[in-house]
Please model this.
Amino acid sequence: MSAQVIPIAEVNRALVIKLRHHGDVLLATPVFSALKHAAPQCETDALIYDETAAMLEGHPAIVQIHSVRREWKQLGVLARMQQELQLFTALRARRYDLIIHLTDSWRGAWLARSLHPRFSTAGFSPLRPPNTLWKAAFTHLAPTPPFGNRHTVESHLDVLRVLGVQPPMDMRKLVFHPGDAAQVSVREMLAPYAVPADQLIHIHPTSRWMFKAWTVAGYAELISSLTELGYRPVITTGPAPREMEMAKEIIGRCRFAPIDLSGQLTLKQLGAVIATARLSVCVDSVPMHLAAALGTPVVALFGPSNEQEWGPWQVPQRVLVSEHACRPCRLDGCGGGKVSECLTVLRPETVLAAIDSLLAETA
Model:
């Protein structure tokens, strides 16, 4: 047996830590599936930020979801210590055999030491190469590939591979469950429009980071063209005022108004809309990953971020990029100016052609 391999059949409880944003948490879901496949006896918990819980609720391989609230930072010292102690006590009571840490946060490294698991592993480090304190926190460290050389899902799964667990292909799928309540509510929202399932095209024009967004004019022309072709676009956004304002501007410039659900949906409801649609048009954002998890074909517009690292995972797709030699730069717009020229140069007819091609492929 390799010195790296652990006796996975002896692991009865595991904790997977992913303290990041919604899309990052969704991209970690195959880790739970693959671990359960390798160790059916294992109870696996998650530690995440509380606002991302919807991404994991309903995952069949997760027993408990523990959460950190970002608002704790705003509390007084004693109140925050009380919250942290309650979380630590709950985690310690689970007596984990294995801790898997999927980010470069020092909280995970501290827990890997303080909870005294038999085994602990991490795939990322805040430093390259990792310093002595980081390495001392873990029994195993998966190598971190250079940016862009590996999809994030595979990088997550590397923390299992370094333990001797080789995830089969059918365990690498993203997992998301909208839930019955969300599906019922979305059917009620869409019922007045009486849209046949093969005509509904989902469009989510925004991102938490607006430098990843395309143009108002581009979306307006795309929505109008799709409507003229007999499709019924439905537009969604997050509840942030700047996202809803962009949707309002887009709709105001459309020759034919789309179904407007911008700012009205929970994450579960957004997933239900995407699952209902024939195709989804997104930028590099949570809805793109939801489409991948739900098996909805997706046309994704990529600008400064890397499609090799973050692109739609295991779903019929078209990824559109410009020919700018500087991309993917990972900057917040050209020169840090919040506008990404590699996105703004994409033409509506290019996006429409990608949609037409993907619809024909998946008919």
About this structure: The radius of gyration is 22 Å. The longest strand covers residues 43-49. The chain has a mean pLDDT of 95.
